[in-house]
Amino acid sequence: FPRYLLERREKLPEAWKPSCIDYETLKSHIKKHVKPHGTPSPAAATLSFSDSVGSRLGYLQNAVSAFFALLDVDVDRLVAFYLEECSRLSMRFELRENSATTADAAAMQLLYGSARTLLQDVVKLERFIFLNYTGITKILKKNDRHSGLRLSEPYVFRLTSLPFYRSTLLASLKKRLIEQVSGTPQSPTGVLTPQSPIMTDGNPFFSAATQAARTSAPKGSWLPPASVAPSQKVLVTMSGPHGTDIIGAVLDSIARYDCHIDDFALSRLYHNVTFGCLITLASDSVDIFRDLAEAAAKWDATLLFDVQDPKDLPASSLEDAPYRDRAKYTATVLNQNGLSSRFLNDWTRLLLDEKISVEKMSRLSAQDGSLASIDFRLSVPLDVDFDKLRAELFSLSMNHHTDVALQPNDVFRKSKRLVIFDMDSTLIQQEVIDEIAKHAGVVGEVARITESAMNGEIDFKDSLRQRVGLLKGTSVNVLELVKAQLTFTDGAHFLCKALKRLGFKLAVISGGFMPLALYVKHHLGLDYAFANQVRL
């Protein structure tokens, strides 16, 4: 923000620059005098806690008081400038009006500007106030963070009594100017100007009662049409221990002032709830912020306002990581014995190293058991090296004996209706060809061929022919014996039943033999079975 403020300041008229808040001086004061003695800083081991707190609070009393003294000077200077500019704008308007019927009207308009030019100057003043108000709120948050003292909220309440927060004069002036520019009188309730810098992003925005007037602006007017005119967006977040009351408090205020809800997000930890709403203000009234603050105090909640920059608005959802050039993925981690804290820590470190953002975590395993499975919705940089990432995921999985499945989070993942299972060592715990080989007395030979195939020394088809050849002459009754000995994997019945209730079609595919695949199909209630046919 300091760099942004400096860039914007350089574009201001020379006469305006000295009235900007001195953000760098305030920031430097916090760094030198507040931060080293703030309550969040580590305590000296040689002092008792009471002595440490007493010493710090004593120093902070002077350092923080000095900070607010500096800030007060900046705010007073800003107020004086604002009043002076309002007076100058009002005088220009009145001189224009008084000369409208005189012979020198053209000369007066040339001297004091057209209505459109004057309206643009009003908007410039609003932008200037908004820029400084943003700087004030940000430096207050910085002081709160480093001092450990939450003083920003009462200071902001103090600002509501200052002229730049609610200016009836400027509101009236802007209303009359828009009437002249649009050629359409505004309704008595259609006061247009944002009466607080937190109400605007630097553009004039209009209440619903004045939308028609904006669409009738002359062709080529600098005023945008109503369909594309920006209205200020604000992210309102309330956190507290009263659950649904928090949600109700936010929505009650939003509904009372007819604000449009663009998006919302909710997080609950037992009684504690954090509820955020991205809203578009429907009018220029600042009373909604007073009501929200009163509701937060009533429910022992923390209230935050975040005025949105149109350039930084989220593309789709508040739950999306606000970064560009990203792809959405879902990672599912699973361990039947429970996910260990060591695994979750290593998993998170891997994501951080690859600059992958976690957008959402959802528990998949039953609540009454161990934490065995989690879905992570991820925001992955497009330039990530996926070959390297796969190798890291495989190593992580092997080291912690935990499955990690990464797949694109797209419509194809969400719309699957068919689930296909392998049979051996998946739905069942054995390898059926090994079980048959035990009864045929050739289990050692079959195991050696299987190992050669696994090592890539022979292909699958050759290994299958060789193993089946060793089983030649084995009694067909062996298949019935093997069926009786099959052990289904824990959870296989529950999983298949749950998927069927959800409407999925289920299939089993095996490199073994069809009689055993059909047995598994019927036992688990699957829809399809595919395997090798064997001559009996």
Structural write-up:
The protein is α+β, with helices and mostly antiparallel strands. It has helices at residues 2-10, 23-34, 49-98, 105-112, 115-147, 152-159, 168-182, 211-215, 244-256, 287-298, 341-353, 386-400, 411-414, 423-427, 432-440, 443-454, 460-470, 477-485, 492-501, 514-524; strands at residues 233-240, 260-269, 272-280, 302-307, 326-334, 357-363, 373-381, 403-408, 418-422, 505-513, 528-532. The chain folds into four domains: 2-215; 233-312, Alpha-Beta Plaits; 326-413, ACT domain (Alpha-Beta Plaits); 419-532, Rossmann fold (3-Layer(aba) Sandwich). The strands form three sheets. It has a four-stranded antiparallel sheet with strand order 2-3-1-4, with helices on one face. The longest helix is centred in the N-terminal third of the chain and has 50 residues, at 49-98.
